[in-house]
Amino acid sequence: MEPTEKKKIIFIINPISGVYSKSNIPEKIARYIDYVKYDYTIRFTQYAGHATLIAQQAVEEGYHVCVAIGGDGSINDVAQSLIGTKTALGVIPFGSGNGFATHLKIPPRNAEGALHVLNTGKTVKLDLVKSNLRYFVSNAGFGLDSSVARRFHHHKVRGLSSYAWAGLKELFFYFQPYHTTVEIDDITIERDFFLFTAFNANQYGYDFAVFPFTSLKDGVMDVIVLNKFRLSKLLYIVGCLLLKRPDLIKEAEQYRAKKVRIHGNKKMCYQFDGDSLIYHDDVTFEIVPQCIDVIVPEDLNAY
Ligand SMILES: [Mg+2]
Hints:
The protein is an alpha+beta fold. It has eight helices and 14 strands. The strands form two sheets. Strands 5, 6, 7, 8, 9, 10, 11, 12, 13 and 14 form a ten-stranded antiparallel sheet that branches. A four-stranded parallel sheet has the order 2-1-3-4, with helices on both faces. Helix 2 (50-60) crosses helix 3 (72-79).
């Protein structure tokens, strides 16, 4: 039998991002990569946004697989350059929350397990969401989560408890709801928005999913809107969200949408895959169905 052609795979490592050390990842790659299947290269990023450029060069050089190592933010950087190309996205999840990878059942902070997925997995086409700012892979929106992401960015210690603490501080001392208008497909709503999040993948990370059924290949975003609520209801609301029962929250609205337009508002703070930014003008989210190849576990059925 003719030997099949080896695939070119590139691993992009940001040596300084995140709390979890990636210093032994090159050694793990050398130990666990399938040498029959792959010829591999490792590149280290040198500045913010460098991963996007490395991924673009990898596409031009005909790499079959481009692997992001890190959290949703790192995957976001790499994915920008792979949309609509023949180069597949691979993931070694090493972030704090790992929402996208958790949806796809790629084991977090387990290089050996993630390399096993790259060695034995299948390639599937997934949706991404395009905006006038950038694509997102996992979720994006504005309101409380974005303000928390902004505050969280300055935290030295990461992890769920640190995130929850940042959330409480934001909620009790700083956060003001945004009054704006949002068009969700054909529906227009004007509100004091406490939270507006559009989900492509099914969760924020940390296995914290809001909806029970979000799919990465169904051609729609799942949107949650949380209106102003009394702080005495906080525990109830968090409990309902943890149980994936947003329907039990009087102040919550759920939508499924192909396109969303958020009307600009002064100093609106957005988050895109956990990275926050301030933007004043209108923002459009539009689902791009099955526009990126991603390597997932061979036995993954529902996604
Ligand atoms: Mg979907």
